[in-house]
Amino acid sequence: MIKVEDILRAYRHGFFPMADSREGTVSWCQPYQRAVVPLDSFRPSRSLRRVIDEKRFTIKINSVFEQVIRACSQPRSTEQETWLSEEIIEVFLKLHHLGLAHSVESWQDGELAGGLYGLSMGGAFFGESMFFFERDASKVAFAWLVAHLKRQGYLLLDAQIMNPHLERLGAVEIPHEEYMAQLEYAFGKKISFV
User: Fold this and answer.
1) Which of 14, 42, 61, 118 could disulfide-link to 127, CB 3.0 to 4.6 Å?
2) Residue ranges of the alpha helices (H) in 98-136?
3) Does domain 4-187 have CATH number 3.40.50.2300?
């Protein structure tokens, strides 16, 4: 069973956990190229700005963390399995109770419409996963997260592994060595998410 200390140690050294299925084996990943979202240069697309301006979604943080992580753990429509095992979910629930893991939620008409969760350590936020039930809900939560991290003084938003969705949201890939330098600098800050 993964312990909280295992997670904290792993993230400090540039690793993160992924499972091969819901009940499967957990592996520790450390990509050669790391996806990060440059906080200073992030700009929502014109279409996302329109959605934000429409105010269809209300943002809340940490109100239904377990519901968010369990929604994130559902396999995508194009996949059979999930990388978010029950073991990973359980340790992140503990991290949430310790005030280290957080959810950003988009609500519409009193219902959870989408969101994301991640881990906050020092001046780094490690974005773990996103989901949506309503179109654009997770994107609005993501844009809110970036603005919040900037306001709080965070230095690093780690998106872990690049994919087309993250690329559209403004993520870029950097070499492992550069990532570790940014990570070490970010860990030198003491910043509160809430």
Assistant:
1) 118
2) none
3) no
